[in-house]
Amino acid sequence: xxxxxxxxxxxxxxxxxxxxxxxxxxxxxxxxxxxxxxxxxxxxxxxxxxxxxxxxxxxxxxxxxxxxxxxxxxxxxxxxxxxxxxxxxxxxxxxxxxxxxxxxxxxxxxxxxxxxxxxxxxxxxxxxxxxxxxxxxxxxxxxxxxxxxxxxxxxxxxxxxxxxxxxxxxxxxxxxxxxxxxxxxxxxxxxxxxxxxxxxxxxxxxxxxxxxxxxxxxxxxxxxxxxxxxxxxxxxxxxxxxxxxxxxxxxxxxxxxxxxxxxxxxxxxxxxxxxxxxxxxxxxxxxxxxxxxxxxxxxxxxxxxxxxxxxxxxxxxxxxxxxxxxxxxxxxxxxxxx
Amino acid sequence: xxxxxxxxxxxxxxxxxxxxxxxxxxxxxxxxxxxxxxxxxxxxxxxxxxxxxxxxxxxxxxxxxxxxxxxxxxxxxxxxxxxxxxxxxxxxxxxxxxxxxxxxxxxxxxxxxxxxxxxxxxxxxxxxxxxxxxxxxxxxxxxxxxxxxxxxxxxxxxxxxxxxxxxxxxxxxxxxxxxxxxxxxxxxxxxxxxxxxxxxxxxxxxxxxxxxxxxxxxxxxxxxxxxxxxxxxxxxxxxxxxxxxxxxxxxxxxxxxxxxxxxxxxxxxxxxxxxxxxxxxxxxxxxxxxxxxxxxxxxxxxxxxxxxxxxxxxxxxxxxxxxxxxxxxxxxxxxxxx
DNA sequence: TTGTACGCGTTATCAA
DNA sequence: TTGATAACGCGTACAA
Lengths: 338, 338
Hints:
homodimer, alpha/beta, 434 Repressor (Amino-terminal Domain), Rossmann fold, six-stranded parallel β-sheet
């Protein structure tokens, strides 16, 4: 594709200057109407496609946004992307999508490439599992426009869009306590950063609020994926009878679904032998043998808000840093005992 | 981000020419080792990030691929994207992802923008519903490198990667006939292009092969989404008893899932009152109340093969046009009566 | 080994 | 209203 038609080609064909062609094609006012029509016609017939690469070089603006997500097959994220697209579609931005497969190395690599491509900004859901913000801090400090969503890094000068993780986790745990009277409640957690930490805090807060025992063996630190939930649940299942929990709060639905698998394989039944709740409202949640009680996350809305905030941040230097929180709703099904 | 560090900045800081810096940074052989080290160090300390926009302008190569999919929330496509990424990740290409929401207008728009951005090639799963290939024909004729996947346009000079739609549809329909003895079989079809057409053909071929009646009222032309399946099924449900089908072959799983909803709402039971099979092997298929018998499509593999073919087409002018077919497998569950 | 000149396609700026 | 020139950041080709 090195043989593209350029402004100069059209100009030569018409006996005018490239500048005039540029003006005509960009609807500038200072072009003779007759000239403009000739140009438009010629551009059409020659199959001209404007070269945004050259435009970008001049304007230092690419109309391009890099989207970095940890797990494209986790249904939450495609839905977020749809929300992002609703916004970008109406504002001429294109999306570079990169899926990091939960690997921080791949994430750093992707961000490096995206910066080389001079994206106007980045939407990031972090896959970092360690509590070290220095990488992101220097990214933001370098002037790169970033908005975090879902798995956010707060307090480093970038806006964030997330759900009220702590509160939601508190509420769903409270539901298990209040409504069902469980007292022995375990937690299948994610890594102790970002949403993993907050959801853990919500869980702990609920137990404390009701003076329930907190048992270290009930708090498993795992990951966000199905296998992690499966493995974590296996550890719980190994617990002796007297320590066996009555209910489990999972960090998200994929993890919960993995746990359900482990429970079923152990020949136990939900919610009688053990109740379980998730977080996400995955597309599969209502379809499980025992439909999963969970926290509904408005993924589409998260994507939309994040994209809006980023574009405003890109286009206005005065835009403030915000931590935007979108509300969740409890989705009560039957895995909790209801 | 117009204040980026350039080669010239580094050059000035070091008292050398920009060219020397360029050579050092690109690991060219003809640079003094001492100079190279100084440059590398300075580049690091000044926070230099190479400008791919400028590089692309010079080289007419962007290391960028446009991916056009019709429906990002249909789980098949995220899985395809993962397959694409496995390939692009290892070859330094970035993906522009655009979701057209099954709207051909949006697709044309997206392709136009992607061409302006001078992507090196396009991976397209078409959302067109009309049987007019002229748009794609002129796209390919213009020299744009295109590989179609899943919803392909064949015979216009672009490679395609798809599953053996006709055969698979034939086989799953045969299963209903052979294994279960159904004779009155309906089809909830997609638009009559690409996979819609082929899956319809497979269905018809099966009926003909076994001398079964073909009833126009049993062939509903709909769409690929859940609502389309729901609506189509409602039409079948309105049929008088003597014309009521015993089994339904759906063009894909989302459509089948919509149909299942309609069947359940009508108070009928699957498979006793009516059997149903799909096509895709959606993540939800095994989780339905009556697990869905369907055709498993190797989405990841489709993505991988398509990306490989496109990159080869981009990098070698001599690359031939191929219609690549990846095999499916029947996924027998219980909605067929098994 | 290093530097200079030029071009990639476009637009801002100033002159005609 | 139109055109000439320079610049965006980089790499090729050639010269020193």
